[in-house]
Write a structure and sequence with these properties.
With 337 residues, the chain is of the alpha+beta class. The protein contains eight helices and 17 strands. It has helices at residues 10-19, 27-46, 70-83, 149-152, 221-230, 249-259, 278-291, 322-334; strands spanning 57-61, 67-69, 89-94, 101-102, 112-120, 131-139, 159-167, 171-176, 181-187, 192-197, 208-210, 242-243, 262-265, 276-277, 295-297, 314-315, 317-320. Bound molecules: 2,5-anhydro-1,6-di-O-phosphono-D-glucitol and manganese (II) ion (2 copies).
């Protein structure tokens, strides 16, 4: 029997993780399994987006002022409906919804909180460029009853798990419960996520930088000096770096996690706190990159230590290979000299 094919499904992997915790009740496993179902339902729509009337935008804007696209709305509703009745959650919060998402009174209340970006990279939907979903899971901090804002506004280091999916040339689900980062690729013929990237580790230093250089005239001096440094011609330090920017955070993040490098969305004259949200984007990906050996900061402070004061609070984000993020922080510290 060939021992090269590891037929490890996401479900089996979750069960193995549960067995490793003797006191586990299966509650957490059920939550993750429901999440995988939600993601498959989104994949099904994304994979035929061009054929259905779910491209384009709705007439709405979300709390961050972004235009809500039809697929944003579909993904948002799909996740909420798939997760509301399992009895695992006391509340949810979504990038696409102003306030807390309560569990309907006719469903059981659980001990976890789910925060999510239902569709990341929405501006790329109509161009068939990779998009994804991002999830963060916390244990509730209030004793019982419906979850509150207090249960959601926790620092990222309190996450018990984080995950993201990419709906691209293939669909991949990457998750971490604190015991390694593991990637599963969807086999559409059987509808199963199969282990394809076990214990992902990011290189200590890369040769890729990802940033929207269209904003460079609005950057501060330290940021400009860092990007010029990366373009310098010095082979021993691996420079010049290659510039790669897809415009879907989750796709840029995944490529840099695999190859090494740094993704940046700094603050600038028009984005004083950057563009990306602490709860739905920065903290889940920071949890994952740290468990893969990388680093994530706002340019000086560790992302996972940031305590959001509101659901949609933004932060500058520098995330990826440890050496690259530290070098960026050094330039930002030095500023204009
Ligand atoms: P979302 O689609 O969830 O609003 O996220 C979009 C984000 C992120 O995916 C991407 O890195 C960034 O916006 C791109 O912003 P710019 O177009 O300003 O570069
Ligand atoms: Mn996003
Ligand atoms: Mn989004």
């Amino acid at each position: 029997m060939s021992d090269t094919i590891q037929l490890m499904t996401l479900g089996h992997h979750i069960e193995e993780g549960e067995r490793a915790h003797p006191g586990a009740t299966g509650d957490f496993s059920g939550l993750l399994s429901n999440l995988a179902i939600a993601v498959k339902l989104i994949w099904r729509e994304v994979s035929k987006a061009g054929l259905l009337d779910i491209l384009g935008t709705t007439q709405k804007e979300n709390s961050s002022g972004d235009k809500v696209r039809k697929l944003d709305e579909f993904a948002d509703e799909t996740i909420y409906k798939a997760m509301q009745r399992g009895g695992h959650l006391c509340a949810m919060a979504s990038e696409e919804n102003e306030g807390l998402l309560a569990i309907p009174p006719n469903y059981p209340i659980g001990k976890y909180v789910l925060v999510y970006d239902p569709l990341d990279g929405s501006s790329n939907i109509d161009a068939n460029v990779s998009i994804g979903s991002i999830f963060g899971i916390y244990r509730r901090v209030t004793p019982a009853g419906p979850g509150t804002l207090q249960d959601c506004l926790q620092p990222g280091y309190k996450q018990v798990a984080a995950a993201y999916t990419i709906y691209g040339s293939s669909t991949i689900f990457v998750y971490c419960t604190g015991n390694g980062v593991h990637g599963f690729t969807l086999d559409p013929s059987v509808g199963e996520f199969l282990l394809s990237h076990e214990n992902m580790r990011t290189p200590r230093q890369g040769r890729i930088y990802s940033v929207n250089e269209g904003n460079s005239s609005k950057w501060n001096e330290g940021m400009r000096n860092y990007i010029e440094f990366l373009k310098g011609d010095d082979e021993p330090t691996g420079r010049p770096y290659s510039s790669r920017y897809i415009g879907s955070l989750v796709a840029d993040f995944h490529r840099n996690l695999l190859y090494g490098g740094i993704f940046m969305y700094p603050s600038d004259a028009t984005h004083p706190y950057g563009k990306l949200r602490i709860l739905y984007e920065a903290s889940p990906l920071a949890f994952i990159i740290e468990h893969a050996g990388g680093r994530a900061s706002d340019g000086s402070r560790r992302i996972l230590d940031l305590v959001p004061s509101s659901l949609h609070q933004k932060t500058p984000l520098f995330i990826g290979s440890e050496e690259d993020v530290r070098k960026a922080e050094e330039f930002l510290r030095k500023g204009g000299d």
